[in-house]
Design goal:
458 residues, mainly beta
Length: 458
Amino acid sequence: EYAMQSFFGRMNLSWDDKYLFEANIRRDGTSRFAKGSRRWGVFPSFSAGWRISEEDFFNASWLPNLKVRASYGSLGNNAVGNYEYQAVYNAANYVLNNNLFVGFAQTALSNAALTWESTYISNIGLDFDLFDFKFGGSIEAFDKVTKNILIDLPAPLVVGNASIPKQNAAEVQNRGIELNLNYRDQVGEFSYNIGGNFTFVDNRVTRYKGEERTINGSNLIQEGYAINTQYILLTDRLIQTQEDLDMVTQMIADAPIDPSTGNQRNPFAAYGTPTLGDFLYKDTNEDGVINDDDRVTVGHGTAPRVSYGINLGFNWKGFDFSALLQGTSGLHTVWRDIYNTTGVRWGYQINQEIAEGRWYEGRTDATYPRLLNYVDSRNLRASDFWLQNKAYMRLKNVQLGYTIPREITQKFKVETLRVYGSLENYLTFTQYKGFDPEVSGTQYPTLKQALLGLNISF
């Protein structure tokens, strides 16, 4: 069974409307960790602010509000199994004198040193309002570090087939800035506002497995890189001419000697010798052989580095309008599936761009490689050719409404009556060739909606 206990305390202080301070502390305990100090985690946080605009020396009528603030806080995570800290026995079969018996054995190693995974966030910011509070905003910088991340480390062969518990052995850092701005004003009966927000985040794995790396498909996790950095081949060209074929022939002629056999190596043994309509991948490590060792890191992982939003609206003589745009950038991903591929089979589909752009005999201006049976993956390796830019800007919502004057609605015993129409997710600007840049591959895309409605109050 699993049990958890928590204690939480808070203190708030402020004086002279100038100085603000708040402190919190929580102490969490979980039965997922061994008894003693490792079972309990203490996670403090505090924030402080200074209203500079309230000071006597501050004299700027155009800047009625100016505040600086700072904060620091921590949180814990106990995402492990219930019994990974202690040795447990499970039923296990064994053979004795050619007979099968049921016994008990320790099928999983324990780690009594397991403890809380902790996240520490530091933040410093500036809040301001200008021009009689018409223009305002905030800017802040943050540093988020997650330590003692619970991960699976490689196990020595001496443990046999016993499973290995998680260990507190990784660390990830996220640094960035956030900016929020808003302007609002009124001219006669026309009032309007426009605002926006911008966030930049730099993600980096600062501790993992030393020089060892974890590769899952085209994603890599390694110290010094963003989480799930793309680890892919680089494409030199699509072979379409005799000159291209001559380059392949020359690479075979210049291939290095295998010291173990004394024979010349086949530089294309890993993926197959390319011919007309195939990719020629780059020999990035310049060893004369094209294989997985030629993969390089590209991009900054599978999370966007930049996120932003823009909102605007107005009110005029009963009419109201609002719009929200949202987007991201700094995100690339290898996308290749049954829709976006040159590997064909019964039941597969390819899009029109690939069908018309594929290489075929006699063509020298193809934009895609030749179509091959899906089991021949020479042109389907994770490479920069299949790398997609998932940056986008989307009109998330736009709404126009009209509130009928009260002198009309009250004749029908109605306090307010508003008619409106709205569009959701109707426009998306992107270079991404998939269904939806907000989802992965061909997963169900974000719905578009058109709405007409009434708001009535009596």
